[in-house]
Amino acid sequence: MPLEDILHRIRRAERQAGRPDGSVELVAVSKVQPEDRVRAVLEAGQRIFGENRVQEAQGRWTPLREAYPDVELRLIGPLQTNKTKVAVGFFDVIESLDREKLARSLAEAIEAQGRAPRLYVQVNTGEEPQKAGVLPAEVEGFVETCRTTYGLAIEGLMVIPPIDEVPAPHFALLRKLAERNGIERLSMGMSADFEIAIAMGATSVRVGSALFGDRQTPPKP
Ligand SMILES: *Cc1c(COP(=O)(O)O)cnc(C)c1O
User: Fold this and answer.
1) What is the tens place of the pLDDT at every residue in 133-175?
2) What is the DSSP secondary-structure string of 46-85?
3) In contact, 88 and 113? CB cutoff 8 Å
4) Is the beta carbon of 81 within 6 A of some atom in ligand 1?
5) What predicted TM-score, i.e. pTM, was given to this entire model?
């Protein structure tokens, strides 16, 4: 679906929710997509992109950023501590802060580089064992530790609801956790449910396949 159509759907969802035009940002999730599709979306004017792997993002965006220096890049996938330095030097936003070890490592890299990406805490609202994210009951303590022990400003919360459940209760829980902790931004909603997320207060939606088409998964070896 063309960028224009996605933006139109976002505007319509904002209005239906009684929210101001432009209150929701589109993060175009370009992971695994072929370069021509990404370039087409850039040429149509999109500037915020999400990637879920540090190396893949660097490979793709290091050259593209020369042509489009105003691009904002967000890491929306898991971050290993051995890649923190690179991630701090490269991303404008990191949405997958989910453990104290990573908070410490990010704080050190930010201090050393004098560059601070904006940070979101990922919350595992479905309490899925295989999924990254802080458990809902631990959000308050974790955010407090990030702020006071590591001096990290937390801009928002991020969630990926369980694939086999209706997303609305997860979006509602994320919002409640944000309000309770004085956090204003919510990264929630993907291709299948971004309009619901907007109705429930999302400030950014992460849209991949609806915008770029299906991801071609690399052939298995
Ligand atoms: C891949 C991905 C998306 C985009 O998913 P679509 O369903 O293709 O829109 C959003 N968020 C995260 C964290 C992702 O990994």
Assistant:
1) 999 999 999 999 999 999 999 999 999 999 999 999 999 999 9
2) --EEEES-HHHHHHHHHHHHHH-TT-EEEE-S---GGGHH
3) yes
4) no
5) 0.96
Could you tell me what percentage of the chain is helix, strand and coil, using 3-state DSSP and rounding each to the nearest 5? 45, 15, 40
Say if ligand 1 is within 6 A of residue 190 CB: yes
What's the gap in Å between 149 CA and the centre of ligand 1? 31
What does the pLDDT look like over 172-214, one tens digit per residue? Answer: 999 999 999 999 999 999 999 999 999 999 999 999 999 999 8
pLDDT at 219 over 90: no
Residue 191 CA: which ligand 1 atom is closest? 9
* 218 secondary structure, DSSP code: P
For 199, the 3-state DSSP assignment is: helix
Distances in whole angstroms, Cα of residue 200 to Cα of each of 17, 65, 167, 189: 8, 33, 10, 10
Atom 7 of ligand 1 has which residue's CA nearest to it?
Answer: 191
Pairing verdict, β 25-29 and 204-207: parallel
Q: Is the minimum distance from the CB of 206 to ligand 1 under 6 angstroms?
A: yes
Residue 207 CB–ligand 1 contact under 6 Å:
yes
Q: Answer whether 52 contacts ligand 1 (Cβ < 6 A).
A: yes
How do residues 103-142 score in pLDDT, each as one tens digit?
999 999 999 999 999 999 999 999 999 999 999 999 999 9
Q: For the chain, how big is the Rg over CA atoms in Å?
A: 17
Q: How far is the CA of 197 from the centre of ligand 1 (A)?
A: 14
